[in-house]
Automatic annotation (TrEMBL):
Domain KARI N-terminal Rossmann: 4-185
Protein's recorded name: Acetohydroxy-acid reductoisomerase
Organism: Fistulina hepatica ATCC 64428
Record InterPro entries: 6-PGluconate_DH-like_C_sf (IPR008927), KARI (IPR013023), KARI_C (IPR000506), KARI_N (IPR013116), NAD(P)-bd_dom_sf (IPR036291)
Superkingdom assignment: Eukaryota
Keyword Methyltransferase appears in the UniProt entry: no
Protein family (similarity comment): Belongs to the ketol-acid reductoisomerase family.
Length: 339
């Protein structure tokens, strides 16, 4: 497989956005950061499309014009950023935006999810590009303010005007991504990696922590010692930070010899065949085949409910009731003055 192209500031022309009306659907985590970055890059012709809520108030406080009528916002858009939660994008976009958008609009998504699963209604004459920062919105904003870039994926998903890639790069530069290098990707790749991490990698890490906690508790270790040793000391965060800087394995050289040998030797002795089969099953039979997408789409209304009628809140409650969850609650209550 060939290495993907990486685009930098010199590859992008901000002039392509000069006379375009730029509309942001949503002003949350990513919307607020990207809109402010784009404005600071010299573009004042920005409109925020948002329902009446605190995000709209925040947008006005930041000096942006807000339009609550989505149809009116759609009619004005030359470039449309879709930055509302994945689960509500199909309903909002297909109902209020798609019928009103210009035939040659450039639609920008920050997640490949709804594009890959073909849940959004586009016209063949429209450009659809992905500009997907790999950081939370607050970091997208703070790194821009510091004059630094941030990791980002970019791609053309639908080519309607013949100018989609140039517009994708202009947008990437405008929000500050090409300063560090925007990596050529695709909605499929971004979706596969994102959902795989969320449904395979991190669930197994959560399970490993829970099981390790219970085994060590049974062996006589205190809740206080376990919580601090396993995560509250922030050592895992420091390890991942070192991994980003020095390399996933080479960061081990910052540990003691006992730790280095124990981790490397222990990993070499483990048989990864079972977990590999488990991972492949999730990737191909849950993520890429659309099974999870259908299940999650069916929960859109339920995710708007309050309390335990919301399936997400049910999962939080179940995990908070676990041995590890209850132990952490006790420890945090006891040590409230020092953490």
């Amino acid at each position: 497989m060939s290495s993907p192209k990486i685009y930098y500031d010199s590859d992008a022309d901000l002039g392509l956005l000069k006379d375009k009306r730029i509309v942001f659907l949503g002003f949350g985590n990513q919307g607020s950061a990207q809109a402010q970055n784009l404005r600071d890059s010299g573009f004042s012709n920005i409109l925020i499309a948002n329902r009446v809520d605190h995000y709209a108030d925040y947008a006005r406080a930041k000096g942006f014009t807000v339009e609550h009528d989505f149809g009116k916002a759609a009619e004005q858009a030359d470039v449309l950023f879709i930055l509302i939660p994945d689960q509500v994008q199909p309903r909002v976009f297909n109902t209020y935006f798609a019928p009103k958008l210009k035939d040659d609009v450039c639609i920008v998504v920050a997640s490949g999810y709804n594009v890959f699963f073909k849940l959004l209604n586009f016209k063949p004459t429209q450009d659809v590009v992905m500009v997907a920062p790999r950081m939370i919105g607050s970091s997208v904003r703070s790194l821009y303010e510091k004059g630094r870039g941030f990791p980002c994926f970019t791609s053309v998903e639908y080519e309607g005007t013949g100018n989609a890639m140039s517009l994708a790069l202009a947008v990437s530069k405008g929000i500050g991504a090409t300063k560090a290098g925007a990596i050529s990707s695709s909605a499929r790749e971004e979706t596969a990696m994102d959902l795989f991490a969320e449904q395979a990698l991190w669930p197994n890490i959560i399970l490993l922590f829970k099981e390790a906690f219970e085994v060590l508790k049974e062996a006589g270790c205190s809740d206080e010692a376990l919580c601090y040793e396993m995560w509250m000391s922030k050592e895992p965060a420091e390890i991942f930070e070192r991994a980003a800087e020095d390399g996933f394995i080479l960061q081990l050289k910052h540990h003691s010899s006992v730790s280095q040998y124990g981790q490397l030797n222990g990993a070499d002795k483990l048989d990864g065949s079972a977990i590999r089969a488990h991972f492949k099953d999730i990737l191909y039979n849950q993520v890429l085949n659309g099974k999870f997408c259908k299940e999650f789409s069916a929960m859109e209304d339920a995710l708007e409910k309050e309390g335990l009628e919301n399936p997400l809140q049910q999962l939080y409650a179940k995990n908070e009731a676990s041995i590890m969850g209850q132990a952490e609650k006790r420890v945090r209550a006891r040590l409230a003055n020092i953490i």
